């Protein structure tokens, strides 16, 4: 939690000044912040202990989304992402949502499912009965595989038996439901599956097949709701009521068409993945869970929808979120540890709500842009900044050069180089810095 996540003018100050501001509002030691970001937070020697065949490391921008308020708490939200405008869009949309009190979040307990596949089960129904009758014994066996987790208050909670396929498939699947506390839980849950597999096969009079977690962790969901006043959605050219109609129309499009739903959800994952990566979590797992959940009805659907409520816009998002605040990458990656520090070292559930808020804010920004000016204007303005930097612009000249090439509708390194020359050599009146798009 931060003192405040509302920092007007943040995008206009230098990287150093931003660090000072963030250290102050989050209560992080400046020395710790700087050391954690050194070299992207990971040295090649450490990376070498982490994965195989290492040659070096690969850096990405580490930014923060502002204005995020969830369940009455403020968060400065770390985001690691290469795509221009994602951080700005999330911050801008979070500011609109903040105007109506922020996000309301509800998070399920951290329950993951360990799957054990049983094959050659001649009589699946009788096998199911035998397994269910030994429920307590199986859960105790599962707990013995994860003693540390049990000490921390987690462990096996439930057992489910599912018969899948046709009778001739002779297949049963047993789910052990495990409370993973603040861990994402993949290793714990895989360990449980391996520990109970042989015993389950014996009880089923069958063979043990695969033993692995399921990434469709629909017992570990996050639900988010927000509302936005029409006047906060208005643009220069469109009043807020028309913007609400446009956003509801965008939502309906995604609800009716899987082709659009995939892109709508990509916009949500822009925000979510950036926080998941910043906090050292497994974004492929979160992605797999999100898309499997989106397709649960048999038809791929949007994870977030938007409706009108009187004069206001209301958004809701529901999706699985397998995410942790202990273990894994966090042991070795200093920038990931810093990300958690900036968030006030949240529980896994609290972090799930922060990820979801970044996702819903990103989605609102995207559908608002699509329902009004179109996405290219904002994207181009921010892309122009990277082009200006690539052409050699530094400091405040970046914004000026970006604004000039946007105005000239020629966003190329050559045009940016010409703009730098113009700035250097003359007293030509400079275009407004605002047109390059702000992130706060
Ligand atoms: C681009 O990264 C994401 C969008 O395509 C999302 C959307 O269309 O809703 C803008």
TrEMBL record:
Catalysis performed (reactions): (R)-mevalonate + 2 NAD(+) + CoA = (3S)-3-hydroxy-3-methylglutaryl-CoA + 2 NADH + 2 H(+)
Keywords, alphabetical: NAD, Oxidoreductase
One MF annotation (Gene Ontology) recorded for this entry: hydroxymethylglutaryl-CoA reductase (NADH) activity
Keyword check for Oxidoreductase: yes
E.C. code: 1.1.1.88
Top-level taxon in the UniProt lineage: Bacteria
Pathway(s) this gene product operates in, as recorded in its UniProt entry: Metabolic intermediate metabolism; (R)-mevalonate degradation; (S)-3-hydroxy-3-methylglutaryl-CoA from (R)-mevalonate: step 1/1
Family annotation (PROSITE patterns): HMG_COA_REDUCTASE_1, HMG_COA_REDUCTASE_3, HMG_COA_REDUCTASE_4
Main EC class the enzyme belongs to: oxidoreductase
InterPro entries, per database record: HMG_CoA_Rdtase, HMG_CoA_Rdtase_bac-typ, HMG_CoA_Rdtase_cat_sf, HMG_CoA_Rdtase_CS, HMG_CoA_Rdtase_NAD(P)-bd_sf, HMG_CoA_Rdtase_sub-bd_dom_sf
Family: Belongs to the HMG-CoA reductase family.
Protein name: 3-hydroxy-3-methylglutaryl coenzyme A reductase
Phylogenetic classification of the source organism: Bacteria, Pseudomonadati, Myxococcota, Myxococcia, Myxococcales
């Amino acid at each position: 939690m931060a003192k405040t996540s509302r920092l007007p003018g943040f995008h206009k100050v230098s990287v150093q000044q931003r660090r000072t501001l963030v250290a102050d509002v989050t209560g992080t030691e400046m020395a710790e912040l700087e050391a954690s970001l050194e070299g992207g937070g990971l040295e090649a020697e450490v990376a070498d202990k982490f994965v195989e065949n290492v040659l070096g490391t690969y850096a990405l921008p580490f930014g923060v989304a502002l204005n995020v308020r969830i369940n009455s708490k403020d968060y400065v939200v770390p985001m690691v992402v290469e795509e221009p405008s994602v951080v700005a869009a999330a911050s801008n949309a979070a500011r609109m949502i903040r105007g109506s009190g922020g996000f309301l979040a509800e998070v399920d307990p951290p329950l993951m499912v360990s799957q054990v596949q049983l094959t050659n089960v001649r009589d699946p129904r009788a096998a199911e009965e035998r397994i269910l009758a030994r429920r307590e014994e199986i859960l105790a066996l599962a707990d013995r595989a994860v003693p540390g987790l049990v000490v921390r208050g987690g462990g096996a909670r439930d057992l489910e038996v599912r018969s899948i396929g046709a009778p001739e498939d002779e297949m049963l699947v047993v789910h052990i439901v495990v409370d993973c506390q603040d861990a994402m839980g993949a290793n714990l849950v895989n360990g449980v599956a391996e520990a109970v597999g042989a015993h389950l096969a014996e009880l089923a009079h069958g063979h043990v097949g695969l033993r692995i977690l399921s990434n469709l962790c629909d017992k570990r969901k996050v639900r988010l709701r927000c509302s936005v006043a029409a006047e906060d959605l208005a643009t220069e050219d469109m009043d807020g009521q028309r913007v609400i109609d446009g956003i509801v129309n965008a939502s309906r499009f995604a609800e009716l068409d899987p082709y659009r739903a995939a892109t709508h959800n990509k916009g949500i994952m822009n925000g979510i993945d950036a926080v998941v990566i910043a906090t050292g979590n497994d974004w492929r797992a979160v992605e797999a869970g999100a898309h499997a959940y989106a397709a649960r009805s048999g038809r791929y659907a949007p994870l977030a929808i938007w409706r009108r409520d009187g004069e206001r816009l209301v958004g809701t998002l529901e999706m699985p979120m397998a995410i942790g605040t202990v273990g894994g990458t966090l042991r070795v990656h200093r920038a990931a540890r810093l990300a958690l520090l900036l968030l006030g070292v949240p529980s896994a559930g609290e972090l799930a709500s922060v990820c979801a808020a970044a996702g819903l804010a990103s989605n609102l920004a995207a559908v608002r842009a699509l329902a009004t000016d179109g996405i290219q204007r904002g994207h181009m303005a921010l892309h122009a900044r990277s082009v200006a930097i690539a052409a050699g612009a530094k400091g405040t000249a970046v914004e000026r050069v970006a604004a000039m090439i946007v105005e000239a509708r020629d966003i190329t390194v050559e045009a940016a180089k010409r703009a730098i020359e113009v700035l250097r050599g003359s007293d030509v009146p400079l275009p407004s810095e605002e047109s390059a798009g702000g992130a706060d």
